[in-house]
Write a structure and sequence with these properties.
CATH class of the largest domain: Alpha Beta
Structural class: alpha/beta
Number of helices: 15
CATH architecture of the largest domain: 2-Layer Sandwich
Largest sheet: 5 strands, parallel
Strand order of the largest sheet: 2-1-3-4-5
CATH topology of the largest domain: Alpha-Beta Plaits
Radius of gyration: 28 Å
Oligomer: single chain
CATH superfamily of the largest domain: Reverse transcriptase/Diguanylate cyclase domain
Shape: flat
Number of strands: 17
Strand content: 15-25%
Number of domains: 3
């Protein structure tokens, strides 16, 4: 179900732009051009995810529509053509998401970012650490206004426990002066376990001594805020650091993921497989490493075109996710794939591979206007104590035997089939 946006704007061209922006983000838009219309709409319908509010309307010249919409607890962005400091202070004194001056086209690009953040910020988890109840709650309120998921702790010791408990925390906002463990010590402890690519830290302090910002940064913090801070600066710092983390995550995802199938690529598979195999060996868990190849894949490309070939690769990846959900799956290159699985015993693991092979062989794949069938060959090693490179080579050798023996089969390295 689409999230609904109330757009309060008396300028038709601006309302049209905001509507287009919102629809590009999959919002369903309801438009009001006067305060009277706003009141009429909200008297019967208050189910809005967010609102954009023009500061001056024909029947509400001094921001009266803002208070009206906020009274229904609808998160709101104020659009204003007035730039004086008094107006700004009046807007920020109210619990708005943000205000955006209508200066130029950048205003609408920024609006799009704000509306997008409202949709995605719930995925960004922030831990607020402060021994002052009022200071902690003030920050929590600001963050929840922006739809972040928020946890709290009273001091550094509690914060470290929360970080162990909630693995999805992306940011820690910590006060300096706290009992048991202060913000500097906490930041130092955090950096022993969490890199800057995984977790951002923002230090805050009401102390007038400027050295605290440098101490926080030198101990691993990413940013610093001095209390009391204005909401604008607070949001800018939070958003900048969250976006930086998300950008790093996207870069890492692109570096580790095959662009076509969204499986791991060869480099990421080797890195993760080595770690898992060490753990399986240490805990005496049965596992197998398999190399998978599409039979006669060149004929698919030659007969149906490369688009059909790409579609076949994507569909094979979907089947791998279906059959090997808990396994480590990758496209090694071309039509060659790999999977690392663990299980109760070798028979169970073999049956998983053979069920996958059989499912592919009896399925019809839709590739554009064509319905095609493919088969796969699989080479596999079980519970090997060899280095990963040797295991991959052994699985490859078993795969070649499967190809030589007629394809569409699973061959175990070291078995009689070899």
């Amino acid at each position: 179900m689409a999230q609904r946006l109330l757009v309060v704007e008396d300028s038709k061209p601006i309302a049209t732009v905001i509507k287009q922006i919102a629809q590009s983000l999959n919002y369903e838009v309801v438009l009001a051009t006067t305060l009277a219309q706003v009141e009429e709409i909200l008297s019967v319908d208050t189910d809005f995810f967010a609102a954009t509010i023009d500061y001056a309307l024909p029947d509400a010249l001094d921001g009266e529509a803002i208070a009206c919409v906020l009274s229904y607890h609808i998160p709101s962005v104020v659009m204003t053509g007035k730039m004086d400091d008094l107006t700004r202070q009046k807007i920020l004194a109210q619990p708005v998401i943000d205000y955006i001056p209508k200066e130029n086209s950048q205003a609408f690009l920024y609006l799009k970012r704000v509306l997008h953040w409202q949709q995605t910020n719930s995925q960004n988890v922030i831990l607020v650490v402060d021994d002052s109840f009022s200071a902690r709650n003030h920050i929590v309120e600001l963050l929840k206004r922006r739809n972040f998921t928020v946890y709290t702790a009273n001091n550094g010791v509690q914060a470290l426990e929360k970080l162990k408990q909630y693995k999805d925390i992306k940011m820690v906002i910590t006060d300096l002066e706290m009992p048991e463990m202060d913000g500097i010590e906490l930041t130092n402890e955090i950096r022993k376990k969490y890199s800057r690519e995984l977790l951002a830290v923002i230090g805050i302090s009401g102390a007038s001594n400027g050295i605290h910002s440098a101490r926080f940064i030198k101990n691993g913090a990413d940013d610093f805020l001095r209390k009391p801070f204005c909401p604008e600066e607070f949001y800018c710092r939070i958003t900048q650091n969250i976006e930086s983390l998300n950008n790093i995550a996207q870069i890492q995802h692109a570096a580790n993921t095959d662009y076509l199938t969204e499986l791991f690529n060869r480099r990421a598979f080797f890195s993760n497989a080595e770690q898992r195999i060490v753990e399986y060996t240490k805990r005496n868990i049965h596992y197998c490493l398999a190399v998978i190849d599409i039979d006669y894949f060149k004929k698919v490309n030659d007969n149906y075109g490369h688009d059909a070939g790409d579609q076949a690769l994507k569909i094979l990846a979907l089947y791998m996710r279906k059959h090997f959900g808990a396994g480590l799956t990758a496209r090694l290159g071309g039509e060659e794939f790999s999977v690392l699985l663990h299980g109760l015993d070798t028979d169970q693991l073999y049956n998983k591979l053979d069920d996958f092979r059989r499912d592919i062989s009896v399925s019809t794949l839709s590739c554009g206007d064509n319905q095609i069938t493919i088969t796969i060959s699989i080479g596999v090693v079980f519970d090997s104590r060899e280095a990963l490179a040797k295991q991959m080579n052994d699985a490859d050798n078993a795969l070649y035997v499967a190809k030589d023996n007629g394809r569409n089969q699973v061959v175990i390295f070291g078995s009689d089939d070899q």
